[in-house]
Amino acid sequence: MNTPAGLYIHIPFCKSKCPYCHFYSTVPWGVEGDADTGTAIAKPIEESVDGPTKAAAVGVAVADAKAHPGAAARAGTDKADTAVGVARFIDALEREMRGYRHLFAAFDTIYIGGGTPSLLTIADLDRILAAARRHFTVAGDAETTVEVNPADGDAAWFSDLRALGVTRVHLGAQSFSPAALQFLGRRHTVRDVYEAAARIRGAGFDNFGLDLIWGLPGQTIAEWRRDLAAALSLAPAHLSAYQLSAEPGTPLRRRLRRGEFALPDEEAAREFFLATDEFLRHAGFLHYEISSYARHPETVSRHNGKYWRHIAYLGLGPSAHSFQDGRRWWNRRNLDEYLTILEAGGLPVAASETLGHDELRLETLFLGLRTAAGIDLNAFRRRFGEELRETRQGLLAALITDTLNALDGDRLRPTPRGMAVADGLSVLL
């Protein structure tokens, strides 16, 4: 029996563009903030008394994309115009769904990310989920996740969200420091995070997560630990902790190149990573992927696990990525192009690639070393016809040195220190 796929839906709308964000979005609700003009960043992070924040990224799943320059909206966008634009987008999503009914029949996870999905009305989200269930077979117990900005959604909105069958909410807290939030160009406050968490709990969501970022300029590990403690006070079921990165094409990258601030070097970043691991493990969390921690095995993200294990997933919306049977493809980044192509009867695929035996083999090794589950050597042999303990003795010896990984029976598992340098180990593979 085939393993059900995962469905990712990219909502491309934001109220403002965070200067570190490299995911595609447009700004129909407000004015785009830009670090180069000073609208997103008012004072340096060195003035912060507390620390961190996150860039909501799902590694292999979503495009490495930035907002296209013509997408920035003007101030005072008419709400009726915005509603029409959202309705047109949802119509296009449904056309895209119809285009993939012959390739993807069944899903057991749905992830609605962005952008800012919480800008949509409950009626909008209901249309999207109803269309997915109409065009595909969606498991009755499907893990269904929606990303939320802490400034969005009142108590009724979250209750209605729960009634739609959403099972997980991911709250983009990013930091509990006002200065850090300002540096990151976030539109929510620390108070918004606490109030949103209370509303989420009040709506009956036991499985909710927080996204955080570490490694801000001037941030200390003590400040980061205070952020983690504040996050744990809200009793989340899941935490995602990401290192701040200045991605190409972002305002943050331009400021970094101008020398306006510095990011932690490799050694400092490793210490942040290990401090995070130690703090959250001590609190009882499972560190199951480089950036992911779950309070219980049942709150591990089933959806994201598909990316790491080469299980099929379908990405809908501008810039979204898909994978099936060794083929990966991705959509056009521009919303206007995405809409125009679908309305003309086509699919908005920008490009694709087919991974050969060796490429899949290398990705399996690379992704496996990023997860606590590691690499099942017997499963690897069955899939690729290679017994690593015989053919790659030198590789295994290199990977196991310096307490980076451990051979646990038939499974090669990374240690926390191994996870900290997993991306750098790719040169050995």
Structural class: alpha/beta
SSE series: EHEHEHEHHEHEHHEEHEEEHEHEHHHEEH
What's the arrangement of strands in the largest beta sheet?
Answer: 7-8-6-5-4-3-2-1-9
Rg for CA atoms: 21 Å
Task: Work out the number of β strands.
Answer: 15
Q: What would you say this structure looks like, in words?
A:
Residues 31-78 have low confidence and may be disordered. A hairpin with a 2-residue loop joins β7 and β8 (292-294). This protein is an alpha/beta fold and 429 residues long. It contains 15 helices and 15 strands. α1 packs across α10 (335-343). 35% of the residues lie in helices and 20% in strands. The strands form 3 sheets. Strands 7-8-6-5-4-3-2-1-9 form a 9-stranded mixed beta sheet, with helices on both faces. Strands 10-11-12 form a 3-stranded antiparallel beta sheet, with no helix packed on it. It has a 3-stranded antiparallel beta sheet with strand order 13-15-14. The chain has 2 domains: 5-308, Transcription Regulator spoIIAA, CATH 3.30.750.200; 358-420. The protein has helices spanning 79-99, 122-135, 155-163, 178-183, 190-202, 221-232, 251-257, 266-282, 302-308, 335-343, 357-368, 377-384, 388-391, 393-400, 416-420; strands spanning 5-11, 106-114, 137-148, 168-174, 208-214, 238-243, 286-289, 292-294, 313-316, 321-324, 327-331, 349-354, 375-376, 405-408, 411-414.
